[in-house]
Structure formats: C-alpha cells, structure tokens
Amino acid sequence: MSTILTSLRNTVTVGFALALLLMIVSFVITTGSIDIGEGFKYNPFWMFVFRWLHVLSGVMWIGLLWYFNFVQIPNMPNIPDDQKPAVSKVIAPAALWWFRWGAMATIITGLILGYINGYLHTAMTLTLMGGGSPNELFIGIGMWLGIIMWFNVWFVIWPNQKKALGIVEADAEVKAASARTAMLFSRTNTMLSIPMLFSMVIAQNIY
Fold first, then answer.
1. Cβ-based neighbour number of residue 113 at 10 Å
2. How many secondary structure helices (H) and strands (E) does the chain include?
3. Are 156 and 96 in contact (CB under 8 A)?
4. 68-74-75 Cα angle (round to 5)
5. Residues contacting residue 24 through CB under 8 Å, at least 6 positions apart
6. Domain locations along the chain
7. Whole-number CA gyration radius for the chain
8. pLDDT digit string (tens) for 18-42?
9. Helix, strand or coil for residue 139?
10. SS3 73
C-alpha cells in the first residue's frame, strides 16, 4: 500500500482503476442496460463519461480557486518574508499549472457534454432563439459564467501571475500591480463560482 500512496502517479492510477472497476460492476448489476450504443451524440455512455470528466476537472479547478482565495492569499501576510519564496517560487507555480489546465479541461468537457446532450446551442444562446427549456436556460447561465471565469484564468490571472511570481521579468512596480490585478480577478472568479455552481445544480435537480 505504501508503494501506491507514496507516489502521486500510482495513487491517481489506482483511483482510475477503481473507477473502472466500478464501471464494470455497474454493467454487471444493470445487465448491460447502460447503453454504449453507436455514434456519439445522444449516447448515454458518452454522456456519463464526459459528465464524470467534467466533474473531475471542475473539482480540480474550483478546488484550487478556493484554495488560493480561502487559504493562500489570506495567509501570505502571516508568513515570514524569508519563507515566502517557498510559496511564490515552488507551490504557487505548481498550483497555477493545475489551476489553469483544470479550467481548460472543465470548459472543453462541458462543451462536449452539451453537444452530446443536444442542448449546446439553446444553452449558449440562453434559449433566446426559442425551443429551450428552463433547465437549458440555467445550464446556459452556468456555462457563460464558466466561460467568463475560464477567460479570466487564461487571459488575465495567469499573465499577471507570471509577472508577479517572476516567471516573466518585470520591475517591482509592475509585479505589485500585476499581483493586485491577479488577486482581484481571482476574487471575481470566486464570486462567480457560487452562482455558476448554483445554476448547474438547479438545472439538474429542479426541472
């Protein structure tokens, strides 16, 4: 067991293997009623697969977003100056890598899921073009909030964090301004994550 748990790669690999085992069990107890079928769109199997991947990606993204805003940012002033480089030079860049690619994976799997389910167009147009249902309206609101958050990650937070952390060379004044901009947009994403998650959940549970 220690061989598995002392290696992150082994830990994650075993996690996915256990998930695969559960998938096989689900096929057995439902006597194969989870239809793999043919094709891609409206296929229940691929709906499940991409919903699962969407949730996994979203947990990584929002989990790290909340880590930054609930843990790292509020506690940085309490860390002695000589210890701060351990966070800014080691922990933060690694966390930001998973953060931005978690955002990318969440958006991609979400758009694919919308296409498979057949609601991508009505959700993205917020049902204004007609033919949409209330749950598609809420999913659309959640999708647009997610897209705004994704844009902030890739085109505002990450470029400014590169300057603030010294990944890209910048003078002290630019670093300070970039750190503040990154923090404000990270807080914006934290704010938007709450109605975004509400919209996604209500679409699955109310209508």
1. 23
2. 10, 0
3. no
4. 100
5. none
6. 1-34, 36-205
7. 20
8. 999 998 888 788 766 666 666 788 8
9. helix
10. helix
**Cα–Cα distance measured from residue 4 to residue 101, given in angstroms and rounded to the nearest whole number:** 25
Q: Which residues contact 198 (CB under 8 A, 6 or more apart)?
A: 142
Q: Tell me the pLDDT tens digit for each residue of 89-117.
A: 999 999 999 999 999 999 999 999 999 99
Question: Which tokens in the block code for residue 113?
Answer: 């899921």
Q: What are 187's two structure tokens?
A: 């807080």
DSSP run (H or E) holding 17: helix 8-29
Determine the residue type at 121: H
The torsion of the CA quartet 169, 174, 175, 179, rounded to 10 degrees, works out to: -130
Cα distances (Å, whole numbers) of residue 129 to 31, 37, 119, 132, 207: 41, 31, 12, 8, 20
Which residues, 6 or more positions from 179, have their beta carbon under 8 angstroms from its beta carbon? 160, 161, 164
In eight-state DSSP terms, residue 77 is: G
Range of weakest confidence among 41-45, 75-79, 129-133, 155-159: 129-133
Length of the chain: 207
